[in-house]
Amino acid sequence: DEALKDIAKRKGLRFGTAVGSGKNQFGDPAYRALVERECNIIVAENEMKWQALEPARDAMRFGPADAMLAWASDKGMAMRGHNLFWQAEKWLPAWIAKEDFGSEPRRGAERLMRKHVQTVCAHYGTRIQSWDVVNEAVDPADGKLRQNALTRPFGAAGEIEQIDLAFRLAREYAPHAQLVYNDYMRGDTGSAKHRAGVLAMLAELKKRGSPVQALGLQSHIGSWDESADRGKEDLLQWRRFLDEVTGMGYDLLITEFDVNDRRLPADIAQRDLGVAAAARDYLDLTLSYPRLRDFLLWGMADHISWLQTWDEAPRTDKLPMRPCPYDAQLRAKPLRQ
Ligand code: XIL
Protein backbone atom coordinates (compact mmCIF):
# COMPACT_ATOMS: atom_id res chain seq x y z
CA ASP A 1 0.00 0.00 0.00
CA GLU A 2 1.09 3.52 -0.75
CA ALA A 3 2.37 5.29 2.38
CA LEU A 4 -0.09 7.69 3.98
CA LYS A 5 2.49 10.47 3.77
CA ASP A 6 2.67 10.00 -0.01
CA ILE A 7 -1.10 10.02 -0.40
CA ALA A 8 -1.16 13.18 1.73
CA LYS A 9 1.63 14.77 -0.29
CA ARG A 10 -0.43 14.54 -3.47
CA LYS A 11 -3.08 16.59 -1.68
CA GLY A 12 -0.57 19.16 -0.47
CA LEU A 13 -0.66 17.83 3.09
CA ARG A 14 1.80 16.48 5.61
CA PHE A 15 0.78 13.35 7.48
CA GLY A 16 1.89 12.27 10.92
CA THR A 17 1.15 11.07 14.42
CA ALA A 18 1.88 11.62 18.07
CA VAL A 19 4.51 9.27 19.47
CA GLY A 20 4.95 8.44 23.15
CA SER A 21 8.27 7.38 24.61
CA GLY A 22 6.85 4.22 26.24
CA LYS A 23 7.91 0.68 25.43
CA ASN A 24 4.93 0.00 23.16
CA GLN A 25 5.58 3.08 21.00
CA PHE A 26 9.04 4.66 20.70
CA GLY A 27 10.40 1.61 22.50
CA ASP A 28 8.87 -0.83 19.99
CA PRO A 29 10.92 -1.25 16.78
CA ALA A 30 7.88 -2.52 14.83
CA TYR A 31 5.79 0.48 15.85
CA ARG A 32 8.67 2.84 15.08
CA ALA A 33 9.04 1.28 11.63
CA LEU A 34 5.34 1.85 10.96
CA VAL A 35 5.66 5.52 11.91
CA GLU A 36 8.77 5.94 9.75
CA ARG A 37 7.01 4.38 6.78
CA GLU A 38 3.76 6.34 7.02
CA CYS A 39 4.68 9.73 8.48
CA ASN A 40 6.65 12.83 7.56
CA ILE A 41 5.80 14.72 10.75
CA ILE A 42 5.49 13.67 14.40
CA VAL A 43 4.70 15.24 17.76
CA ALA A 44 5.58 14.02 21.25
CA GLU A 45 2.52 12.66 23.04
CA ASN A 46 3.65 13.94 26.45
CA GLU A 47 7.41 14.51 26.40
CA MET A 48 7.45 18.24 25.53
CA LYS A 49 4.75 19.23 27.99
CA TRP A 50 5.95 21.57 30.73
CA GLN A 51 5.37 18.93 33.38
CA ALA A 52 7.64 16.52 31.48
CA LEU A 53 10.36 19.08 30.67
CA GLU A 54 10.47 20.60 34.17
CA PRO A 55 9.01 18.10 36.66
CA ALA A 56 10.46 20.12 39.53
CA ARG A 57 11.43 23.79 39.44
CA ASP A 58 14.68 24.31 37.49
CA ALA A 59 15.18 20.55 37.07
CA MET A 60 15.08 20.43 33.29
CA ARG A 61 14.64 17.01 31.73
CA PHE A 62 15.02 17.17 27.96
CA GLY A 63 16.20 13.58 27.42
CA PRO A 64 13.05 11.73 26.30
CA ALA A 65 11.93 14.46 23.88
CA ASP A 66 15.47 14.89 22.54
CA ALA A 67 15.71 11.18 21.75
CA MET A 68 12.53 11.41 19.74
CA LEU A 69 13.65 14.55 17.94
CA ALA A 70 16.99 12.95 17.01
CA TRP A 71 15.12 9.95 15.57
CA ALA A 72 12.71 12.19 13.67
CA SER A 73 15.47 14.23 12.04
CA ASP A 74 17.41 11.05 11.24
CA LYS A 75 14.35 9.69 9.41
CA GLY A 76 13.51 12.96 7.70
CA MET A 77 10.38 13.58 9.74
CA ALA A 78 9.51 17.08 10.98
CA MET A 79 8.49 17.47 14.62
CA ARG A 80 5.85 19.75 16.12
CA GLY A 81 6.09 21.13 19.66
CA HIS A 82 3.23 20.30 22.05
CA ASN A 83 2.77 22.38 24.17
CA LEU A 84 4.18 25.47 25.92
CA PHE A 85 1.13 26.29 28.06
CA TRP A 86 -1.74 23.93 28.90
CA GLN A 87 -4.45 26.03 30.49
CA ALA A 88 -6.36 23.27 32.32
CA GLU A 89 -5.10 23.60 35.88
CA LYS A 90 -4.53 19.90 36.44
CA TRP A 91 -2.05 19.70 33.54
CA LEU A 92 0.20 22.51 34.77
CA PRO A 93 3.26 21.33 36.70
CA ALA A 94 2.10 21.01 40.30
CA TRP A 95 4.99 23.12 41.59
CA ILE A 96 3.66 26.25 39.87
CA ALA A 97 0.69 26.43 42.25
CA LYS A 98 3.18 26.59 45.13
CA GLU A 99 5.29 29.37 43.61
CA ASP A 100 5.52 32.54 45.63
CA PHE A 101 5.26 35.35 43.10
CA GLY A 102 5.97 37.96 45.78
CA SER A 103 4.44 41.38 46.19
CA GLU A 104 4.00 41.85 42.45
CA PRO A 105 2.42 38.56 41.44
CA ARG A 106 1.84 39.58 37.86
CA ARG A 107 5.52 40.40 37.37
CA GLY A 108 6.43 37.09 38.98
CA ALA A 109 4.14 35.10 36.70
CA GLU A 110 5.44 36.97 33.66
CA ARG A 111 9.02 36.21 34.69
CA LEU A 112 8.27 32.52 35.05
CA MET A 113 6.51 32.40 31.68
CA ARG A 114 9.43 34.17 30.00
CA LYS A 115 11.96 31.81 31.53
CA HIS A 116 9.95 28.78 30.41
CA VAL A 117 9.50 29.92 26.81
CA GLN A 118 13.09 31.12 26.55
CA THR A 119 14.56 27.89 27.97
CA VAL A 120 12.46 25.56 25.85
CA CYS A 121 12.62 27.53 22.60
CA ALA A 122 16.37 28.14 22.96
CA HIS A 123 16.88 24.41 23.50
CA TYR A 124 15.05 23.44 20.31
CA GLY A 125 15.87 26.43 18.11
CA THR A 126 14.70 26.00 14.54
CA ARG A 127 14.31 22.22 14.88
CA ILE A 128 10.70 22.76 16.01
CA GLN A 129 8.92 24.65 13.25
CA SER A 130 5.43 24.68 14.76
CA TRP A 131 4.43 25.14 18.39
CA ASP A 132 1.16 24.59 20.20
CA VAL A 133 1.78 27.72 22.26
CA VAL A 134 -1.46 27.52 24.24
CA ASN A 135 -3.53 24.35 24.67
CA GLU A 136 -7.18 24.17 25.74
CA ALA A 137 -7.81 27.67 27.10
CA VAL A 138 -11.60 27.59 26.74
CA ASP A 139 -13.87 25.82 29.23
CA PRO A 140 -16.42 23.85 27.17
CA ALA A 141 -18.99 24.14 29.96
CA ASP A 142 -19.49 27.88 29.52
CA GLY A 143 -17.14 29.04 26.77
CA LYS A 144 -15.15 31.17 29.21
CA LEU A 145 -11.37 31.26 29.47
CA ARG A 146 -10.01 28.88 32.09
CA GLN A 147 -8.23 30.23 35.14
CA ASN A 148 -5.11 28.64 36.55
CA ALA A 149 -2.08 29.37 38.71
CA LEU A 150 -0.58 31.47 35.91
CA THR A 151 -3.67 33.44 34.87
CA ARG A 152 -4.73 34.42 38.42
CA PRO A 153 -1.68 36.62 39.10
CA PHE A 154 -2.69 38.64 36.04
CA GLY A 155 -5.69 39.90 38.00
CA ALA A 156 -9.34 40.22 37.09
CA ALA A 157 -9.95 39.28 33.44
CA GLY A 158 -6.25 38.53 33.18
CA GLU A 159 -6.73 35.27 31.28
CA ILE A 160 -6.63 36.85 27.85
CA GLU A 161 -3.57 38.88 28.80
CA GLN A 162 -1.74 35.79 29.96
CA ILE A 163 -2.57 34.05 26.67
CA ASP A 164 -1.56 37.09 24.63
CA LEU A 165 1.77 37.19 26.49
CA ALA A 166 2.32 33.49 25.85
CA PHE A 167 2.12 34.09 22.09
CA ARG A 168 4.29 37.20 22.22
CA LEU A 169 6.97 35.32 24.14
CA ALA A 170 6.82 32.45 21.67
CA ARG A 171 7.22 34.92 18.81
CA GLU A 172 10.21 36.47 20.58
CA TYR A 173 12.03 33.21 21.32
CA ALA A 174 10.91 31.14 18.31
CA PRO A 175 10.72 33.79 15.60
CA HIS A 176 10.79 31.17 12.82
CA ALA A 177 7.99 28.98 14.19
CA GLN A 178 4.33 28.67 13.31
CA LEU A 179 2.39 29.64 16.45
CA VAL A 180 -0.75 27.61 17.10
CA TYR A 181 -3.68 27.72 19.49
CA ASN A 182 -4.80 24.10 20.02
CA ASP A 183 -8.18 22.91 21.35
CA TYR A 184 -10.71 20.09 20.97
CA MET A 185 -14.01 21.78 20.11
CA ARG A 186 -15.85 18.57 19.47
CA GLY A 187 -18.26 18.92 16.57
CA ASP A 188 -21.33 17.77 18.49
CA THR A 189 -24.13 20.22 19.11
CA GLY A 190 -23.38 20.12 22.83
CA SER A 191 -20.14 22.00 22.30
CA ALA A 192 -21.59 25.10 20.65
CA LYS A 193 -20.48 27.09 23.70
CA HIS A 194 -16.96 25.77 23.37
CA ARG A 195 -16.73 26.82 19.74
CA ALA A 196 -18.27 30.24 20.48
CA GLY A 197 -15.69 30.73 23.24
CA VAL A 198 -12.82 29.83 20.93
CA LEU A 199 -14.10 32.22 18.25
CA ALA A 200 -14.43 35.03 20.79
CA MET A 201 -10.89 34.41 22.04
CA LEU A 202 -9.42 34.29 18.53
CA ALA A 203 -11.23 37.52 17.63
CA GLU A 204 -9.92 39.23 20.76
CA LEU A 205 -6.35 38.05 20.13
CA LYS A 206 -6.54 39.33 16.57
CA LYS A 207 -7.77 42.68 17.85
CA ARG A 208 -4.80 42.82 20.21
CA GLY A 209 -2.37 42.00 17.42
CA SER A 210 -1.27 38.81 19.13
CA PRO A 211 0.98 36.70 16.86
CA VAL A 212 -1.33 33.65 16.68
CA GLN A 213 -1.15 32.09 13.23
CA ALA A 214 -3.25 28.96 13.28
CA LEU A 215 -5.93 27.01 15.08
CA GLY A 216 -5.07 23.41 15.91
CA LEU A 217 -8.15 21.20 15.61
CA GLN A 218 -7.44 18.31 17.95
CA SER A 219 -10.15 16.23 16.24
CA HIS A 220 -10.82 13.61 18.89
CA ILE A 221 -14.03 12.83 17.05
CA GLY A 222 -16.66 10.13 17.51
CA SER A 223 -19.06 9.54 20.36
CA TRP A 224 -18.05 11.28 23.52
CA ASP A 225 -21.50 11.83 25.02
CA GLU A 226 -25.17 11.39 24.25
CA SER A 227 -25.38 14.38 21.91
CA ALA A 228 -22.21 13.53 20.07
CA ASP A 229 -23.33 11.71 16.98
CA ARG A 230 -21.81 13.76 14.26
CA GLY A 231 -24.88 13.98 12.06
CA LYS A 232 -25.50 16.39 9.20
CA GLU A 233 -26.45 19.18 11.58
CA ASP A 234 -23.13 18.83 13.43
CA LEU A 235 -21.17 18.99 10.21
CA LEU A 236 -23.03 22.13 9.21
CA GLN A 237 -22.09 23.73 12.53
CA TRP A 238 -18.52 22.59 12.05
CA ARG A 239 -18.35 24.16 8.57
CA ARG A 240 -19.69 27.45 9.93
CA PHE A 241 -17.05 27.36 12.64
CA LEU A 242 -14.17 26.68 10.23
CA ASP A 243 -15.45 29.38 7.88
CA GLU A 244 -15.34 31.90 10.72
CA VAL A 245 -11.87 30.87 11.81
CA THR A 246 -10.38 31.00 8.32
CA GLY A 247 -12.34 34.21 7.64
CA MET A 248 -10.36 35.83 10.46
CA GLY A 249 -7.17 34.86 8.64
CA TYR A 250 -6.10 31.87 10.73
CA ASP A 251 -4.60 28.72 9.22
CA LEU A 252 -5.79 25.28 10.36
CA LEU A 253 -4.13 22.01 11.40
CA ILE A 254 -5.55 18.66 12.43
CA THR A 255 -3.35 17.95 15.43
CA GLU A 256 -4.68 14.89 17.31
CA PHE A 257 -7.10 12.86 15.19
CA ASP A 258 -8.75 9.68 16.47
CA VAL A 259 -12.28 8.24 16.62
CA ASN A 260 -13.94 7.40 19.92
CA ASP A 261 -16.01 4.26 19.20
CA ARG A 262 -17.71 3.90 22.58
CA ARG A 263 -21.22 3.98 21.15
CA LEU A 264 -20.57 1.74 18.16
CA PRO A 265 -21.51 -1.97 18.28
CA ALA A 266 -19.22 -4.55 19.88
CA ASP A 267 -18.89 -6.47 16.60
CA ILE A 268 -15.44 -5.59 15.33
CA ALA A 269 -16.17 -5.51 11.61
CA GLN A 270 -19.22 -3.29 12.12
CA ARG A 271 -17.38 -1.10 14.56
CA ASP A 272 -14.43 -0.54 12.25
CA LEU A 273 -16.77 0.45 9.42
CA GLY A 274 -18.54 2.88 11.74
CA VAL A 275 -15.23 4.45 12.72
CA ALA A 276 -14.19 4.78 9.09
CA ALA A 277 -17.52 6.35 8.13
CA ALA A 278 -17.34 8.95 10.90
CA ALA A 279 -13.78 9.77 9.88
CA ARG A 280 -14.72 10.13 6.22
CA ASP A 281 -17.52 12.63 6.90
CA TYR A 282 -15.31 14.70 9.16
CA LEU A 283 -12.19 14.58 6.99
CA ASP A 284 -13.95 15.23 3.67
CA LEU A 285 -15.15 18.52 5.07
CA THR A 286 -12.18 19.52 7.21
CA LEU A 287 -9.46 18.62 4.70
CA SER A 288 -11.29 20.63 2.02
CA TYR A 289 -9.94 23.86 3.55
CA PRO A 290 -6.85 24.95 1.61
CA ARG A 291 -5.55 26.61 4.78
CA LEU A 292 -5.15 23.16 6.32
CA ARG A 293 -1.76 21.60 5.50
CA ASP A 294 -1.01 19.20 8.38
CA PHE A 295 -2.93 16.11 9.47
CA LEU A 296 -1.69 14.33 12.59
CA LEU A 297 -3.18 11.38 14.44
CA TRP A 298 -3.02 10.91 18.20
CA GLY A 299 -1.52 7.42 17.77
CA MET A 300 -1.33 5.02 14.80
CA ALA A 301 -2.52 1.76 16.40
CA ASP A 302 -5.39 0.87 18.72
CA HIS A 303 -3.39 -0.72 21.53
CA ILE A 304 -1.33 2.40 22.23
CA SER A 305 -4.23 4.89 22.06
CA TRP A 306 -4.71 7.16 25.07
CA LEU A 307 -8.43 6.33 24.83
CA GLN A 308 -7.76 2.82 26.21
CA THR A 309 -7.04 4.33 29.60
CA TRP A 310 -9.00 7.57 29.41
CA ASP A 311 -11.82 7.00 31.89
CA GLU A 312 -13.85 10.09 30.98
CA ALA A 313 -15.66 8.19 28.24
CA PRO A 314 -15.11 4.41 28.29
CA ARG A 315 -17.10 1.74 26.48
CA THR A 316 -19.83 0.34 28.71
CA ASP A 317 -18.93 -3.21 27.59
CA LYS A 318 -15.29 -2.54 28.58
CA LEU A 319 -14.01 -3.90 25.25
CA PRO A 320 -10.77 -2.32 24.00
CA MET A 321 -11.38 0.78 21.89
CA ARG A 322 -10.60 0.78 18.14
CA PRO A 323 -9.91 4.48 17.43
CA CYS A 324 -6.88 4.22 15.10
CA PRO A 325 -6.04 3.16 11.51
CA TYR A 326 -4.00 0.12 12.64
CA ASP A 327 -4.91 -2.61 15.11
CA ALA A 328 -2.83 -4.04 17.95
CA GLN A 329 -1.05 -6.39 15.52
CA LEU A 330 -0.24 -3.39 13.31
CA ARG A 331 -2.62 -4.57 10.60
CA ALA A 332 -4.38 -1.90 8.53
CA LYS A 333 -8.08 -1.37 9.36
CA PRO A 334 -10.86 0.16 7.21
CA LEU A 335 -9.95 3.61 8.57
CA ARG A 336 -6.56 3.25 6.84
CA GLN A 337 -8.21 3.00 3.40
C1 XIL B 1 -2.91 13.04 26.55
C2 XIL B 1 -1.94 11.89 26.42
O1 XIL B 1 -2.27 11.12 25.28
C3 XIL B 1 -1.97 11.03 27.66
O2 XIL B 1 -0.96 10.06 27.61
C4 XIL B 1 -1.80 11.91 28.90
O3 XIL B 1 -1.97 11.14 30.06
C5 XIL B 1 -2.78 13.04 28.92
O4 XIL B 1 -2.67 13.77 27.72
N1 XIL B 1 -5.54 16.73 24.28
C6 XIL B 1 -4.20 17.07 24.26
C7 XIL B 1 -3.18 16.02 24.50
O5 XIL B 1 -3.85 18.21 23.94
O6 XIL B 1 -2.02 16.54 25.09
C8 XIL B 1 -3.74 14.91 25.34
O7 XIL B 1 -2.76 13.89 25.45
C9 XIL B 1 -5.01 14.38 24.72
C10 XIL B 1 -6.07 15.45 24.66
From TrEMBL:
It catalyses: Endohydrolysis of (1->4)-beta-D-xylosidic linkages in xylans. Gene3D superfamilies: Glycosidases. Residues 1-337 form the GH10 domain. It holds the Pfam family Glyco_hydro_10. Its EC number is 3.2.1.8. InterPro entries: GH, GH10, GH10_dom, TAT_signal. Keywords: Carbohydrate metabolism, Glycosidase, Hydrolase, Polysaccharide degradation, Signal, Xylan degradation. It comes from the Bacteria. Belongs to the glycosyl hydrolase 10 (cellulase F) family. This is Beta-xylanase.
